[in-house]
Amino acid sequence: MQPEVNSVTLRTRSLSRNYGARPVVQGLDLEVRRGEVVGLLGPNGAGKTTSMQMITGNLAPTTGSVEVCGVDLLEDPVRAKTHIGYLPEVPPIYRELSVDEYLRFAARLHRLRGASQARAVQIAKARCGLEDVGRRLIGSLSKGYQQRVGIAQAIVHGPDLVILDEPTAGLDPNQIREIRALIRELRGGHSVILSTHILPEVESVCDRVEIMHEGRVVYADSIVGLQRSRRGTELTAGFQFPPAVDEIAQILGVTQVEALSAHRFRVVHQEGIDVGAALAEAAARNGWGLNMLAPGHATLEEVFVRITQGEEEP
Fold first, then answer.
1. DSSP collapsed to 3 states, 252-313
2. Distance CA 227, CA 296 (A)
3. Residue 313 domain flag
4. Are 245 and 231 contacting, i.e. CB atoms less than 8 angstroms apart?
5. Helix, strand, coil % (nearest 5) of the chain?
6. Residue 178 confidence (pLDDT)
7. Same domain, residue pair 94 and 50
């Protein structure tokens, strides 16, 4: 029985992995729903790849559980894996095969035969923009098209959960845009977990972000929630005749001032204090020529740096 729309396709509980005495992933609780694109982020060594290997059944956890569409991955791995599509950072392609040959091979691995196999290959090719290159050798394709082939093999069997590890690494800007558009399109019938170091990519295509640090999830929020997270305590101010940072910092309620450019500043303030009015008054009094005053919000990059460099409590 297929899961319903918006149902949970992945649920991990207390998922952990140790290498000897060293914990690499600790207590990972993750829930992903159908139609969601979740960005899994973290600095090198945070435990992202190990987590994805456990979720896909390529690595046994030390403790914890993984359920894919309600099927326990440890108790019934063959059935659970029918719901999973996986693109590792290095696509598992055979350069000496044509695109059609390779996708038929991938479909056979998922036990598709005859008309079902032909239909599945055709659908995957259409979704990934590969209809015109079916007879070409994979080794003759550009890196962008090879990535498309890698994604096609991950979705050829119609999985409920698609896991993509650095799918745009090494691509040029046009290829990156094409792959991002494809990832957005995938959310229509799948859940997607996207691991990437390109933070604007996460803000562009993801619905939710999970940041890992030292083996734990230390930040989890929707992209909309992220964008709202600091609007209440930040302002962006622009001046025709900009003052020194110290002059702005002296205004009552201001806790931090950062120069974004020669004329623009990021002003952090205490909650409940109308710093905007005080800033406008000081600008008028001192002739700073205030020409912009807007509520600010933290970018994903700012949140990522603050958390992973210990500037902010998770």
1. CCEEEEEECCCCEEEEEECCCCCHHHHHHHHHHHHCCCEEEEEECCCCHHHHHHHHHCCCCC
2. 9
3. no
4. no
5. 35, 30, 35
6. 86
7. yes
Phi-psi map region of 27: left, alpha, beta (phi>0 left; psi -120 to 50 alpha): left
For residue 244, what are its two tokens? 């020194």
Whether residue 185 is contained in a domain is answered as: yes
Q: Are residues 182 and 235 in the same domain?
A: no
* Domain around 246: 230-297
| Tens-digit pLDDT profile for residues 86-141 | 999 888 999 999 999 999 999 999 999 999 999 999 999 999 999 999 999 999 99
Evaluate whether 46 touches 214 at the Cβ level (below 8 Å): yes
Report whether pLDDT(248) > 50. Answer: yes
- pTM, entire model: 0.77
In angstroms, the CA 270 to CA 290 distance is: 21
Residues 288 and 199 in one domain: no
Q: Is the pLDDT of residue 266 over 70?
A: yes
What H or E segment, with its residue span, contains residue 56?
none
Q: Give the residue from 207, 227, 247 where a domain finishes.
A: 227
Token pair for residue 49?
């790849």
307 has pLDDT over 50: yes
Q: Are 92 and 114 contained in the same domain?
A: yes
Residues 234 and 222 in one domain: no
CATH label of the domain that carries residue 94? 3.40.50.300
